[in-house]
Inverse folding.
DNA sequence: CTTAGACCTAAGCAACCGCTTAGTATGGAG
DNA sequence: CTCCATACTAAGCGGTTGCTTAGGTCTAAG
């Protein structure tokens, strides 16, 4: 486990499915630029310069600037869904805690990608947005199921399951907004803090 | 109490300090446009059209597009700080609950303004950002004081006061991201839900 | 060496951006 | 009436945008 890639060493292959290498470099450059300046404030010249290529090189691999955004959003949503549902614990409290720990710390560790994922939805075309919204629906359903399983097992005390689901997701997602690598909390510490707070919110014994 | 202005009827004078009326109409049009499309995706022509004036009319009342953003951000931050600190309760749990209820429901009721306040900070000039960051510091300090007062009085069980402050503010702020007026929760209901969740987070008896 | 094809660049186009300039309409004071 | 300040618009300027086109360079098979 290195300090830069943290506990997501295996997932640092976020972009490994993107080929050829030049297309991957372009995506990574676009994600970095979008996360710092926002989609609309980023020019195709910015992206190309950061990837070390000419502005026209963008269009060898992607149809448009928006397609770059879509690929980042699609892969980022799929990765965060995998992180959330990839926990192995079986008891309700341990399972929810592990999922929140992983999901929250992913939003810190990969705050660059997460910011694009969470705050640039409105720049997607309607067709691309539809595809991404389906992934978001599955993320929400995963959290809701974990909470209602705990309620059914008598492990949680939750008067409003949908409200609690909303709050848990909201809390984790917002990490992408405020997190700074220079802050004095590591992604793992944020994960631990949030797992504890969420167990208190659902009234776990 | 009307359904549209909710419990913030008196505060619906958010922009009442802005004169003359044409300047106020321009600010409101800009806030609406920025909240829907984002600062960088909004053109001065969009703003002027929504205010029913010509593009040049923007520059009668404001030096630049960025100054419109700054005024929205400054007034919005000041208003949300007033909402947060305007609670009258004295006991720690009641005071924190009332503050969270007011702050969270403000972010729903005025989600248009709140979105600009929370998500367009990076478009401000360094000088304007400095002024707004000072208001944000006071907002954070207000929440932190409420939590540490409760800890000192033995009413809360909080192992990490700064971490809890971060989470409480984060939860309320993120309402501006997900809230939709067409949703089935009213701003007041969101405030009640969040006040309960926050009391659980701080371990109030 | 020739050739095909993948990959990339230099140059630039049409459209659009924030903002400016020059001028018009209005209404109150003298 | 004249004069002037205020509030606005029509037109457009210089610069930037996303994206295209035409052409160059590299690798590897024949």
């Amino acid at each position: 486990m290195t300090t830069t890639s943290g506990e997501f060493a295996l997932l640092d292959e976020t972009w490994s499915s993107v080929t050829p290498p030049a297309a991957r470099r372009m995506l990574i450059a676009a994600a970095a630029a979008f996360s710092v300046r926002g989609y609309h404030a980023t020019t195709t010249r910015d992206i190309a310069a950061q990837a070390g290529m000419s502005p026209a090189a963008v269009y060898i691999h992607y149809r448009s600037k928006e397609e770059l955004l879509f690929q980042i959003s699609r892969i980022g949503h799929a990765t965060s869904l995998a992180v959330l549902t990839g926990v192995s614990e079986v008891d309700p409290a341990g399972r929810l805690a592990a999922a929140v720990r992983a999901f929250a710390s992913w939003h810190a560790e990969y705050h660059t990608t997460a910011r694009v994922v969470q705050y640039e939805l409105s720049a997607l075309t309607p067709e691309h947005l539809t595809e991404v919204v389906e992934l978001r629906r599955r993320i929400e359903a995963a959290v809701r199921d974990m909470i209602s399983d705990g309620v059914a097992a008598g492990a949680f005390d939750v008067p409003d399951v949908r409200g609690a689901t909303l709050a848990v997701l909201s809390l984790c997602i917002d990490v992408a907004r405020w997190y700074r690598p220079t802050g004095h909390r590591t992604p793992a510490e944020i994960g631990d803090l949030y797992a504890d707070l969420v167990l208190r919110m659902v009234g776990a014994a």
About this structure: Residues 1-6 of chain B have pLDDT under 50 and may be disordered. The CA atoms of residues 144 and 165 of chain B lie 5 Å apart.
